[in-house]
Design a protein that fits this description.
Blueprint: E1 7-10, H1 24-33, E2 37-42, E3 48-53, E4 56-58, E5 61-66, H2 71-78, E6 81-86, E7 95-106, H3 109-123, E8 130-132, E9 135-138, E10 141-159, E11 161-168
Length: about 170
């Protein structure tokens, strides 16, 4: 699947005078290489829920998995809108990336096999998943797999000049 190329803009309200926008290819590279992401979902009563997890950037979307009884899966049953973030904790270096979108469950066995191989390639053999009944299957039991295709994303750069980039898809 061809990835959709976003429009890119620097928000001067939140950027240093000499800041330049971060390219989408650079942000996508950060999403591909990140080891930890933070998923924000909304509970049925409206309260936020945030949790760290591992994930894969593949075919223009961030993918993550979760057990069907976990809070994040239960939240996504009633509200598929979510945010995934990754970055660092330094005030003066790095770039944070925030992806807004809707989590869509991946059930296609071929896509799941590609994702399972990508998880093992990125995180090692302890993250091996088999595919069965439209989900991952592993030592921890059944795991639903979700894809979040960006609808909008933000980059917060802190390399010398602070800059906020917005990508609209």
């Amino acid at each position: 699947m061809a990835e959709k190329e976003p429009t890119t803009e620097l928000d001067s309200r939140f950027s240093s005078d000499k800041a330049t926008p971060v390219s989408w290819s650079e942000a996508r590279g950060l999403l591909e290489r990140a080891e930890i992401y933070w998923l924000s979902t909304v509970r049925p009563d409206g309260r936020p829920h945030v949790t760290p997890l591992i994930g894969i950037w593949l075919d223009g979307a961030l993918h993550f998995c979760t057990g069907p009884a976990e809070r994040k899966a239960r939240n996504l049953e009633t509200n598929t809108r979510c945010v995934l973030t990754t970055g660092g904790n330094s005030l003066t270096e790095g770039t944070d990336v925030v992806v807004e979108g809707e989590a869509v469950q991946v059930r296609d066995e071929q896509a799941l096999r590609r994702l399972a191989a990508a998880y093992e390639e990125k995180y090692g053999p302890s993250w091996h998943f088999d595919v069965a009944d439209g989900a991952f299957a592993g030592e921890g039991g059944r795991a639903l797999v979700f894809a979040v295709t960006p609808q909008q994303a933000f980059g917060f750069a802190r390399e010398g000049e602070y800059g906020q980039t917005r990508w609209r898809f």
